[in-house]
Amino acid sequence: MLSPAPRTTVVLPRFVLTAATELGADRTQLLHETRLTPSMLEDAQQIPTTLAVRVWEVCEWALDDPYSALAIASRYRMGVLDLYDYLFVTSDTLGDGLSATAEYLFTATTACTATVVERDDTVDLEFSMGEGGGHTRDLATQYALGVFTHRIVQGTGKRVAPVHVGLTQRPPRSHEAFNDIFGTMSVDFDAHTNSVTVRKSDLTVPLPGSDPVLAKILKRFATQLLPSDHPPPPDPAGTSWLAEFRIVLDTHLARGAATRLDTLARHFAISPRTLQRLLTRHGTTWRGELDAARRREMRRLHGTSDEVAQRLGYSEARALRRARHRWNAVR
Known about the structure:
Blueprint: E1 7-9, H1 11-22, H2 27-34, E2 46-48, H3 49-63, H4 68-73, H5 83-89, H6 94-103, E3 112-118, E4 122-129, H7 134-155, E5 164-166, H8 176-182, E6 187-188, E7 194-199, H9 212-224, H10 241-254, H11 261-267, H12 272-281, H13 286-298, H14 305-311, H15 317-329
Parallel strand pairs: 5-6
Antiparallel strand pairs: 1-2, 3-4, 4-7, 5-7
Helix pairs in contact: 1-3, 2-3, 3-7, 5-6, 5-9, 10-13, 11-12, 14-15
InterPro entries: AraC-type_N (IPR032687)
GO molecular function: DNA-binding transcription factor activity; transcription cis-regulatory region binding
Protein name: HTH-type transcriptional regulator AraC-type N-terminal domain-containing protein
C-alpha cells in the first residue's frame, strides 16, 4: 500500500508568495505556475510538500532575480509566520527563543528541520531541508537563514546580531546581497552545514516581548498541531491546553474584555477556525465553553440585571435571562 504524499502547512508558502507579489511578481501568474489556488492558501490548510517547495524556483523566475530568496527574506517582519513567530517572541531569553525556533519549526513548515548546536563560545542554529534539492535547496536555505537572522535582530530589539553565517552552496558571484541580509561580513560558502551563529554569552539576553504564561499556552497549542509522523517537542509542565484555554477565557470575562471567538483566537495567535477545531478535538465547543465561563463569572458578580448582563457580554438583561433559562434546561 502506497504511503500518502507528504504535506505541510501553508504558512511559509503563503508568506513567500505575498512577499514576491509585493516585490513586483504577478500573483495570478505565481498561483498558476505553483499550481496553488487561493483556497489552498487559507489558514490552517495543508498542501502537498512538493507544491510548497516549488514556490522558490517559481518566484525566482517571476522576479527574474538570482537573489530572490534573499529579497523575500528582507520582507520578513515578526508576526508574518503566525504562531511560529509568537513562540519565539514570547520566550524569556534569546536562548529560549532559539530553542523554540528549532523545536516548533513544524508550525511553519514540515519540509525542513532546525537544530541548536552549542560549541565552546558560540551556538549554531543549523538548518536542513528534507524536501527538494539542488538549486531549490539553495533558495530555501538562503531564505531560512535570512529569516533566522532577522528574528534574532528584531526579537532582541537589535541588541544581538549573528557573528557568522555558513551555507553549503557554492560561492555566488557577489557576496554583497548575502552580507546585507545576514547583517554580518562573516559569511562562508561551501560550509559543512547551513547555520547562523551567535555568541553563547548572548543566549541570556532577554526578549522584550517575553510572556512566560502565553509562551506555555502557545507551546501546548503548537503540540496539538504536531503531524503524526513528527517527533514531539518537549512537553511543557503544567495543566492541559483546554485548562489553559479556560483560564484565559475566565480572565477575559473577569476583566470585562471582549469575549468573541476572534478575540480569543488572536490571544493564541491562531485563526478562529483553528481555535474551533482545537475545541472540537477536546470534545467541546466555543459556545459551550463561553456559556460555562459566563456561569462561573455570574456566581461572583453583584449588581443590577443590566449591569451583570453587560459584564458578561450580553446586549441586555433579557438576553441574560434567556441564557439562564437555557442553562437550567440542560442541567
